[in-house]
From TrEMBL:
Keywords: 4Fe-4S, Iron, Iron-sulfur, Metal-binding, Methyltransferase, S-adenosyl-L-methionine, Transferase. GO terms for biological process: rRNA base methylation. SUPFAM superfamilies: S-adenosyl-L-methionine-dependent methyltransferases. Coiled coil: none annotated. InterPro entries: NA-bd_OB-fold, SAM-dependent_MTases_sf, U5_MeTrfase_fam. This is 23S rRNA (Uracil-5-)-methyltransferase RumA. PROSITE patterns: SAM_MT_RNA_M5U. The keyword Metal-binding applies. PANTHER family: 23S RRNA (URACIL(1939)-C(5))-METHYLTRANSFERASE RLMD (PTHR11061:SF49), RNA M5U METHYLTRANSFERASE (PTHR11061). Belongs to the class I-like SAM-binding methyltransferase superfamily. RNA M5U methyltransferase family. One of its GO terms (molecular function) is 4 iron, 4 sulfur cluster binding. Pfam families: tRNA_U5-meth_tr.
Amino acid sequence: MENAVTDAIRVVALGNDGDGIAQTPQGRIFVPGTVPGDEILLAAQNGTHGTLDRVVAPGADRVDAPCDLFGTCGGCRLQDMALPALLEWKTGRVAETLQRVGFDTIPAPQAHQVSPHGRRRVDLAFRRVEKQIVLGLHRRRGDVVDMSECTLLDPALFALLPPLRAMLHSLPAVHARGDLQINLLDSGPDLLITMDGTPDANDRRILAQFGKAHGIPRISLQGRPPETLALTGPVFHHFDDVRVVPPPGAFLQPARAGEAFIKAAVLAGLPRKGLKAGIIELYAGCGTLSFALAEQAKVHAYEGDRAALACLKQASGGTRVLPALRDLNRQPVMATDLGKAAAVVLDPPHAGAGAQIAQIVAGRPPCVIYVSCNPAALLRDLMPLRDAGYRLDSVTVIDQFLWSAEVESVCVLTLPGANRRNRR
């Protein structure tokens, strides 16, 4: 039941989803659109959630949102908070997570933040509305908002949106709606489309013409596996100096700068001695970290997605990367192999590393470097390592999901006394 609230209340913190937290006589509530320090009035309160009426007195970290779509488009939740304060909050989230893990000491985190207009990967939705195509992101728990501006996207991707709207409008296979994923590869934008109709020869012709006109070498249809609808040039991307051919919809770190920060933290965390024993990399993808790691040692790179593994395998000739297909949830790399490595590097999906953690604990490799995009999974996965005696040597926090609650981190853990020849 919603109740009107007439007294001003103060926002004291942010919740994990980025909503402000305020204390009322009825208890703690979450209020979207607020930042710590705000004095606010509520339009209504429903249980633990409040609806903002207005900000009576802004907090020190409140700023004017740089995008006019903020509050409507669902892409950004925290544009009304200054970026330095946002990085500090995300760094605090990671530090709090590590404190909950229970490490005896937590090193001061190194923190990095990417710049606006640097996002090279985006998932959009589109709808036919009257005689036009609406193309953009969903409003919070709502329909698609047309992306008429964006402070996140790389300018090359944003410039593609107007011609995309015109092309999708002309495409017979688009009846009412669909989705569009774009990766900005070194070869140009790579499109993966979901449509509510079946594309025919005319649709393919339209897509091929569009690709040629706008420097888009490949346009694919979502499926298992995806189907290439138009191929007008070579598709490629580079990880370090190695050229790869990513499959449609391949995972990329959202920003080049974010990828560089992660890679630098991982390389800095490697042992300085004993690397002849090699590195085991789990969840290797198409090679985001693999080839950089291979400059330091032989890398046994495991990946469960067949298309990504094929990409990695094709590019690995002449390098020290040894790719292997492995569903790490059903068939984790075993402790006997992990224990022989100088270091284990893993960048698991959002849900975490699952059954693989128990094998790492049992194998007791001297160094574990964990790349995380989810503090909850980080907490769950690091606890067994802490219990096994691992210490936390360094923490790096990367904000490459600007104006959102998402945060990336790199944690370097070592096991005192394990394989001393591999220790720093």
